[in-house]
Amino acid sequence: MASVEIRNLRKKFGSVWAVDGVDLTIRDGEFLVLLGPSGCGKTTLLRSIAGLERPSAGEILIGGQRVDEDVPPRHRGIAMVFQSYALYPHRTVFENIAFPLRAAHAPRRNIEEKVRWAAGVFGISAYLDRYPRQLSGGERQRVALCRALVRDPKVLLLDEPLANLDAKLRNTARDELKRFQRQIGTTTVYVTHDQIEAMGLGDRVAIMDRGKVRQLGTPQRVYEDPDDTFVATFVGQPPMNLLRLCDGAGPPGTLLGFRPEHFLPRAVLRAAEDARSFRFHVRRVEYLGSDRYLYGTLPDQCDPSPTFIAKLPATIGTPVLEGEAYEFAVPVRALCYFDSTSGLRRRG
Amino acid sequence: MTRRTLRRLLGRATLYAAAAALTAFAGFPFYWMLVTAFKQNRDLYVGASDLRHVPWVFNQSPTLDHVRLLLHGTEFPHWILNTLLIVAVVIAVTVALAVPAGYSLARLAGRWGERLGIAIFLTYLIPPTLLFIPFSRLVSLLGLQNSWGSLILIYPTLTIPFCTWLVMGFMRSVPWDIEEQAMIDGYSRLAVILKVVPRLIVPGILSVVVFAFTLVMQEFVYALTFISSVEKMTVSLGVPIALVRGDVYHWGALMAAALVTSVPIAIVYNLFLDRFIESFTMGAVKG
Amino acid sequence: MTRREPADPPASAQPALLARGTLADRGELLGGLMLAPALAYVALLAGIPFLLAIALSFSDATAGSLRFGWAGLRNYAAILSDPVFRRALWNTIVVTVGSQALVIVLATAAAQVFRASFPGKRVARFVLLLPWAVPVSLAAIAWEWIFDSTFSVINWTLKAAGLLHGWLYWLGEPTLALLAVIIVQAWRIFPFATVIVLAGLTSIPQEILEAATVDGAGFWRRLFQIELPLLLPVTSVAVLFGTVYTATDLGVVYVLTGGGPANSTHVLPTLAFQRGILGADLGQGAAIAVFLLPLLLVVAILMLRLARHTEVGVR
Ligand SMILES: Nc1ncnc2c1ncn2[C@@H]1O[C@H](COP(=O)(O)OP(=O)(O)OP(=O)(O)O)[C@@H](O)[C@H]1O
Ligand SMILES: [Mg+2]
């Protein structure tokens, strides 16, 4: 077990800064998720921690020791699972799992024992004699995890390990992964661009954009209390509504943000609830079973053109017709204010 | 019949005609080798102005005389052996030098890899016909005139540039993740290169072997320049230069020699064609 | 960025030290070591002779002695005033341009044919590629027999078809001999060009062609307005290689005509061989060969440009 500390890390490819000044501390035993859109530098950051990429500037510390300069990957005490799983195609599952132990010259008896134990934990004991090509995607993923964990890494690095699985398998695999991590308590850094994975798995989530960490916090904090408009619109499906204010209610250049699920018919809210009301002209209703999505505009605002979304759970039966306008409202405690030029949150 | 089916039929017919014409043009000399190699002399040496004698077919029963002459009455078997010996050594040298270099350019050389790779590739364009004169100087300085040593020394300058490029292109098409995984699993770079890479690079090595093989089999200029005694010649030199008895061309034997040498080369070459083409186009047209 | 997480506990005071890397972990070092032998070999045995070729062209070196005297531009003056050289230079240009023009036509046609599927295609493709794989000198000797002055099967066929009334002395008459050389060079290079163009053809996204068809473009319009422009970079690669192979080739002319009759069909490589090796005048031979350099230079530059542009061009 170890903490990982990243200080002002930068990495340049050609003329692009793939990682552009990241400060991040991953606590001992924590499950940290790096979440961000494609190309934001998640993989590069992860590979820098692993030592596969040499940073252009900055420091990386594992367990308090500086590693970025001259500790090669094999001595960093890390394990990594690639998106492709990178199983050695010409070795059996057993040999794949045993590989890190053999590379570390572990005693023969130990290897046998550990491999069987780990295979048991991951439920792949039956496949030990097979070759990777004879396994399904989910089984390969478990072999890769198993190989990563046999030699008790201090830090486990995972780069979109579920991306190659189908949707159903991904759900169970996610659940298993979280259970294993709890059980062994290894510090884990997990890269994904799927926010459901990120929210479901992470003790904390780091939201990245264009090489920078925009916000670091628990899934709940990141969702409910975004630091800027990028985080606000990237996390959450459908994304947070952003309304440009120009009625003098706030300082000039203020954006008002509210989540679709807080944007409800006024009548649904308790009368005493302190809420901000809008006239909502519904253009289209999307019925999704558990929810209804309402797409429409706010005709009374200074810029009536942008589309806003309201998400009504099935428990709210209020009839809504396309083409009609209704009175909707957002509880004041669910409103966020942002600066429209910097995108940063205005608090207080 | 509608106009559309008519047009389609016409298109089909044009396609077959064009395919047949192009194939015939490409294959005609080989057909001619085949016919000549097995014709009796009486059938072979009939002047072309005699229109009653059709040269395209066997007018008399085929014969193995020319093949027999080639195998027993000439140095041809020797030449084959010479060539194979030289090929083996050149392949060994090429693999030993070009494979590590290609790997290094693809994986280790970083920013410089691309430029160095192109520079090495461009030396492939320097033709033997520009270098044979300085080489003749060099060869006589080293006292290698009229010996296989000269060819063994020089042929790798033909094979290494292209083969380095070939291996580099091949390694670029192999994902890095296996090698990186091994580094994370506890191998050093060196251990990865020694223990993991050899398995990954086998197809690349095979294409290097084939390319070096065909290149050496085809080479003519250096052999012509440096080898003067008949018993030391290679096939591609001996057949056109020394398979002449006195002043008489034994066309039957000549064509038999050309045929038995070229067809195996062509077969081997064909197996690896796609890889070579990818290299020639500098990786620009991968599918 | 505001971080409002509780302060992290300080890292444990005395971490177990992680081992540092050894020489075996230094990628650049290993890379250099793996590259060095090949680089040295090529530099020593291609780079130095290349410079030596240029140096020799300014010297009076002969094969007989190891003397190496400065001759200034005397070799160049000698060959430039030599009609045989000028003829050879001209022949080189004619053969190269002529054969490559043929190659473009043949390769474009062949690529169109071989992208379609038809029974026997595999065999046809193998036959098509034979000329490229066969050693030049063996191909040339086969063609010499085909062009033989008495037994030429071409003459027989032309006569039998009623197209020829006199007699064609293919290798005995300068114009016909050059034509023969052009035919053989085109025959040798076009299969190679075909496969390259074919590779380019398969890399044109099928949707582009389908879109053109939907837009109402027929075969010819598709060919000339969409495929050929898209194929230009690949075709250029093929032609550039073809140019180098043809202009610097010694085998075909050497075997077919030996430069004759009366030195009328020499190309630069054969003349360089005759003067430099057979005539033992290394200086003059080198000077003749050096005339290939401008051509190679142009090709190399075009190659570099293409290498930069094709990626965008074809995809
Ligand atoms: N080896 C490389 N050479 C050049 N540019 C690179 C290299 N690796 C990454 N990049 C660039 O750096 C940026 C960040 O890439 P990275 O792979 O870290 O993104 P990512 O967040 O992992 O994206 P994804 O979710 O698509 O995997 C991208 O713009 C990418 O093009
Ligand atoms: Mg990634």
Low-confidence stretches of chain B: 283-287
Could you say how many structural domains of chain A there are in total? 2
Which compounds are bound in this model? adenosine-5'-triphosphate, magnesium ion
Q: Give the radius of gyration of chain A.
A: 24 Å
- Which fold does the CATH topology of chain B refer to? MetI-like fold
CATH architecture of chain B: Orthogonal Bundle
Estimated radius of gyration of chain B: 24 Å
Chain-averaged pLDDT of chain B:
85
Task: Count the DSSP helices of chain A.
Answer: 8
The CATH fourth-level homologous superfamily of the largest domain in chain A = P-loop containing nucleotide triphosphate hydrolases
Put the structure in a nutshell.
The complex is a heterotrimer of chains A (348), B (287) and C (315). Chain A is α+β, with helices and mostly antiparallel strands and 348 residues long.
Outline the structure in words:
The complex is a heterotrimer of chains A (348), B (287) and C (315). Helix content of chain A is 24%, strand content 32%. With 348 residues, chain A is an alpha+beta fold. Chain A has 2 domains: 4-232, Rossmann fold (3-Layer(aba) Sandwich); 239-346, Beta Barrel (OB fold (Dihydrolipoamide Acetyltransferase, E2P)). In chain A, strand 4 and strand 5 (65-66) form a beta hairpin. Chain A is elongated. The model of chain A has no long low-confidence stretch (mean pLDDT 90). The longest helix of chain B has 36 residues, at 3-38. The model of chain B is unreliable at 283-287 (pLDDT under 50). The radius of gyration of chain C is 28 Å and the shape is flat. With 315 residues, chain C is mostly helical. Chain C folds into 2 domains: 12-57, no CATH class; 77-314, Orthogonal Bundle (MetI-like fold). At the B-C interface, helix 1, helix 4, helix 5, helix 6 and helix 7 of B face helix 1, helix 3, helix 4, helix 5 and helix 6 of C. Residues 42-43 of chain A line the site of magnesium ion. Chain B: Residues 80-272 form the ABC transmembrane type-1 domain. Chain B: It is a multi-pass membrane protein. Chain B: InterPro entries: BP-dep_ABC_trans_perm, MetI-like, MetI-like_sf.
